[in-house]
């Protein structure tokens, strides 16, 4: 089994606001890439970040702190140099997320007057 030279970080929260805050803080804290997120039942969501080991650790720590402030952090973890099968699983998650994103359209501008957004 071959290991990869990067690290994989995961931040699991309860609720989307905490996840968004975690992903934003992680991306701003270090040179990492937020690759995807995954939703589970009962509002449990996980965001995945990749980069070098020290950057991912710093990003996950910052993201976990942000999730705690905004909502509820369930777990966070960093896998340095994951086995070659782990990236395949993450790529599968990314392709599933892209398929879901195609079915969701967000408005490009907020309507004047704060009216309801059209979908």
How do you describe this structure in short?
By secondary structure, the chain is an alpha+beta fold. Helices cover 42% and strands 27% of the residues. Strands 2-3-1-4 form a four-stranded antiparallel sheet.
* Secondary-structure arrangement, i.e. CATH architecture of the domain at 1-83: 2-Layer Sandwich
CATH superfamily of the domain at 1-83: BMC (bacterial microcompartment) domain
Form type: globular
Mean pLDDT: 84
Largest sheet: 4 strands, antiparallel
Low-confidence stretches: none
- Kindly report the spatial arrangement of strands forming the biggest sheet: 2-3-1-4
Query: Structural class, from secondary structure content?
Result: alpha+beta
> What would you report as the Rg, rounded to the nearest angstrom?
16 Å
Count every beta strand, where a strand is a DSSP E run of 2 or more residues. 4
Task: Give the class-level CATH name of the domain at 1-83.
Answer: Alpha Beta
Written as H for each helix and E for each strand, in order along the chain, the element string is EHEEHEH
How far the N terminus sits from the C terminus, by CA atoms, comes to 46 Å
Share of residues in strands: 25-35%
Subcellular location: Bacterial microcompartment
Organism: Brevibacillus nitrificans
Biased composition (Acidic residues): 109-119
Pfam family, one: BMC
């Amino acid at each position: 089994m071959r290991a990869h030279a990067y690290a994989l970080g995961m931040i699991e929260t309860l609720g989307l606001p905490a996840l968004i805050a975690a992903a934003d803080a992680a991306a701003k804290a270090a040179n990492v890439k937020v690759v995807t997120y995954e939703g589970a039942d009962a509002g449990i969501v996980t965001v995945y970040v990749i980069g070098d080991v020290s950057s991912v650790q710093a990003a996950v720590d910052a993201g976990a702190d942000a999730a705690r402030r905004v909502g509820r952090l369930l777990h966070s973890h960093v896998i340095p140099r994951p086995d070659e099968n782990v990236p395949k699983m993450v790529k599968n998650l990314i392709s599933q997320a892209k398929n879901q994103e195609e079915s969701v359209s967000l408005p490009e501008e907020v309507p004047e007057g704060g009216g309801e957004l059209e979908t």
